[in-house]
Request: fold
Amino acid sequence: MTAHFKVTVAKDYLTFSSAHFITFSGHQCESLHGHNYRVAVSVEGDIDPECAFVVDFAILKSAVRDLIKPMDHRVLLPTGNEKLGLKDEGESLVVDYFGKRRFQFPRADVCLLPISNTTAEMIAAYLAGQIQTHLTRFANLEALEVEVEESVGQSAYYRASLRD
Reply:
């Protein structure tokens, strides 16, 4: 029999509240709106023989908290979306969508993310990549999965293999 281990952190405090909008195919852009996001992270791998766990829960919780803190109570904006023009204007960030829609936000209220769109899927993939950098010292890990829930019953998942 082959053993397989998986640990998950999905705490009530691994949440952030943010505003966003996404762009769709063609020339469609939804209205600015917000969510109370929840994040859960799972890792799979072998048991560390010295510690008898896959990875310390505290390490996962700390990594998630550090990553979501800058997104809490901010407007999430993707820097990799070719449909959006982002321009710093002193204390403001101006967002232009093909000249059809223009937003101006206080720069301090914005969180720029290196993703193509602020969908739950892209946020999950971004978080997974960042969490993975916190876990590089753990050679026993095989996979990482991040869930981003926009609202109850509405989640996106990103799963990555950590072994080549």
Q: What stands out?
A: The domain at 5-73+117-161 is CATH 3.30.479.10 (Tetrahydropterin Synthase; Chain A). The chain has a mean pLDDT of 93.
